[in-house]
């Protein structure tokens, strides 16, 4: 992975923050109610699932890990093309050329306990909502990828299939957390973009796909600029763009 010369920071430097942005206690609470939608067998979207304080904490944990050794970088292909995002790997290194590996010359940060418990709680809630463990098998994450997309960021249509045969074949779910600007997320049975369904992933949403949907094709078509909740930006100082965290069991 090519590390940018300067470490990539998720946070706007304090000297660039508009001092008129204040957060009143009333704005502090995330008041929108959570809901959920089963998108297809094995695929569930938990809307507005994460509290504002959890979202802020996630930004700060990712910032700390992202500016450290083995932090954010822009991975690329052999021919020099780069993914249109900044990536931070947890638990195990991943890039499009080597897939999962031990990393090169740096220690890959472990998944923080806070993330593991958020993922497990979301998965447990989803199993209850879907009323079936068959539809969404259990997993405890040991690998994670944090992606940061700017307004022009995107991710081509792909399947997540670099995990172990055992993990994929039992339909071990992928748990994906969205924070910041919203994304147009495409998913479906075919790689063909015209045949895919679209859903908007907003800040605080968690998308889970496992079981029969473990091999679903998916990608990020576009980031919707300036769509992040203002209160999140004020509290976290997250720079414009979208933070996405995906967790899996290798
Ligand atoms: O950013 C997203 O919502 C999707 C990320 C993703 O598909 C991946 O990291 O494999
Ligand atoms: Fe993916």
Count of DSSP H/I helices: 4
Number of strands: 13
Q: What bound compounds does this protein have?
A: 2-oxoglutaric acid, fe (ii) ion
What is the SS-derived class?
A: alpha+beta
Mass-distribution shape: globular
Strand order of the largest sheet: 1-2-11-8-13-6-3
Q: Assembly state here?
A: single chain
Domain count, please report it.
Answer: 1
Element-level helix/strand string:
EEHEEEHEEHEEEEEHE
Name of the top-level CATH class: Mainly Beta
Overall average pLDDT: 89
Strand content: 25-35%
For the largest beta-sheet, the strand count, sense and barrel status come to: 7 strands, antiparallel
Radius of gyration: 17 Å
Spell out the CATH superfamily. Alpha-ketoglutarate-dependent dioxygenase AlkB-like
Structure description:
The protein has a 7-stranded antiparallel β-sheet with strand order 1-2-11-8-13-6-3, covered by helices on one side. A 4-stranded antiparallel β-sheet has the order 7-12-9-10, with no helix packed on it. It has a two-stranded antiparallel sheet with strand order 4-5. The chain has helices spanning 52-66, 113-130, 165-169, 230-236, and strands spanning 35-40, 43-47, 86-90, 93-95, 99-101, 143-149, 155-158, 174-180, 182-188, 197-201, 206-209, 217-224, 242-248. The chain has a single domain (35-248), classed as Alpha-ketoglutarate-dependent dioxygenase AlkB-like (Jelly Rolls, Sandwich), CATH 2.60.120.590. Helix content is 18%, strand content 28%. With 250 residues, the chain is an alpha+beta fold. The protein contains 4 helices and 13 strands. Helix 1 crosses helix 4 (230-236). The longest helix has 18 residues, at 113-130. It starts with 34 loop residues before the first strand and ends with a strand. Residues 145, 147, 155, 160, 176, 183, 185, 201, 218, 220, 244, 246 line the site of 2-oxoglutaric acid. Fe cation binds at residues 158, 160, 218. Pfam families: 2OG-FeII_Oxy_2 (PF13532).
């Amino acid at each position: 992975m090519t590390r940018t010369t300067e470490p990539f920071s998720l946070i706007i430097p304090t000297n660039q923050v508009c001092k008129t942005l204040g957060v009143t206690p009333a704005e502090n609470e995330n008041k929108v109610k959570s809901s959920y939608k089963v998108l297809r067998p094995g695929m569930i979207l938990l809307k507005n699932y994460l509290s504002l304080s959890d979202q802020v904490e996630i930004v700060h944990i990712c910032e700390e890990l992202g500016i450290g050794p083995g932090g954010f970088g822009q991975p690329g292909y052999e021919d020099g093309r780069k993914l249109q995002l900044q990536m931070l790997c947890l638990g195990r290194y991943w890039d499009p050329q080597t897939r999962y590996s031990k990393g090169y010359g740096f220690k890959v940060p472990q998944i923080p306990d806070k993330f593991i418990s958020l993922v497990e709680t979301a998965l447990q809630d989803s199993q209850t909502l879907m009323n079936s463990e068959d539809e969404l098998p259990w997993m405890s994450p040991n690998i994670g990828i944090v992606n940061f997309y700017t307004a022009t960021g995107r991710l081509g249509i792909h399947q997540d299939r670099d995990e172990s045969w055992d993990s994929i074949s039992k339909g071990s779910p992928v748990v994906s957390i969205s924070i910041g600007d919203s994304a147009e997320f495409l998913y479906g049975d075919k790689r063909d973009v015209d045949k895919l369904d679209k859903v908007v992933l907003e800040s605080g949403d968690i998308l889970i796909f496992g079981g029969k949907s473990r091999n679903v094709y998916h990608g990020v078509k576009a980031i919707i600029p300036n769509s992040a909740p203002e209160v999140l930006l004020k509290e976290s100082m997250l720079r414009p763009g979208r933070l996405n965290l995906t967790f899996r069991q290798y």
